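User: My collaborator sent over this chain with a note saying "see what the structure looks like." That's all I know about it. Can you take a look?
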Amino acid sequence: SLKGIDMASLLQRRRLPRDTWWAYLFLSPVLFGAFIFVLAPAIATLFISFTEWQMGSAPSWIGVENYRKEFNEPLFWQALRNTAYYTVGIIPLNMAVSLLLALALNAPIRYRVFYRTVFFMPVVTSVVAVALVWSWLYNPDFGVINLLLAKIGIQGPGWLTSQQWAMPSVIIMSVWHGMGYNMVIFLAGLQGIPVHLYEAAKIDGANWWSEFRHITLPMLSPTTFFILIISIIGSFQVFGQIYMMTRGGPANATHVLVLRIFNLAFRFFHMGQAAALAWVLFVIIMAVTLIQFRYSRWVHYE
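Assistant: Without extra context I'll predict from the sequence alone. Here is the result:
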């Protein structure tokens, strides 16, 4: 019998490499695509960031000149401030609205599947189409928002033409467009909380606020942390709604980092400087993400 066991284990060990090769075979299209379309371009942009390249001529090595030029450019710092403004404005609002929706649609109400679908529909809608519709809503002359405000005696501002209101207008549109995605993730987190915790709290006489504060929020902290990470990464890469609604205006009030990268690369054809700024943005996002992981003691895992 020992001989049979040894033979079986030997055959199993011989089959493992074949299983591994099959796994690599099925993964190869994804790995190949990731290398060709992600890793290789990233390495190429790192090289380009140290060169002067106008696309019409061969790149010439200039060292860190692109980085120095960008750090000495006032528009870079304004774009960085605008990006930070957008991030600080959208993250708390988006997460709060998404959590409230998830709590409401997690309750046993009628037609909740229908409501979930309705609130998720903007997520699957193109950001270009959404931005165009909201641009019409924000129009100071015939936009629905200002017409409704006029009916109650309030003169609406020039939402996208005012330096004060342009970025808040983009933030409001972005919250509406993206809240359904976070809502679904919060719903998954809520449904993963054990029911017996709420039952025990009710026996102890806890009210809704006590349950939310001492059970829901702590048990939902891993989900909240995940949403916080992906939301901040996404907010630093905002582009579509800015490009479609304001083009970075008025007076560069909504000029963000990705829009500056786009302008440098495809308007002024300064590919080296655009690549340098792309790597600066990567370092900023990486640093912010690592800081969040460093100070994630508030996240409670079961």
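A starting point for your reply to your collaborator: The CA atoms of residues 137 and 143 lie 4 Å apart.
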